[in-house]
Specification:
This protein has one domain (19-92). It is 11% helix and 30% strand. The chain contains one helix and six strands; from the N terminus they run E-E-E-E-E-H-E. It has one helix at 81-91, and strands spanning 13-18, 25-31, 37-44, 59-60, 68-72, 99-100.
Length: 101
Amino acid sequence: MEFTDPSEKEETFTGKIYCANCSHCVLFKQQVGQTTSYVLRVRCNMGMWKKQSGEEKIYKYFTIVRRTMDSCCYYDAMGDEKNFIKELRRNLPIRDEIYSY
Ligand code: SF4
């Protein structure tokens, strides 16, 4: 079940939250110009990542482990965070890679 209004959800998770372990953290392909290449990006589909201007902020996939929140009322853990983050750190690309379709 998805919640769109923070007041509808009873619990707000606090402490260090890794967005990578949240079901609302979405990985997608972003085409590079008019080419057949793409880069990997992540976004929060609850709209919690914003620039100061209010515009949505997206991040490069290889930085995903750095996306943390002190608290988030939408956090929806996908499993054992510790092992997941450990594996993710091991498998993430070390830079912004360009892929081809
Ligand atoms: S809903 Fe909260 S915890 Fe989940 S990805 Fe968005 S900001 Fe991170």
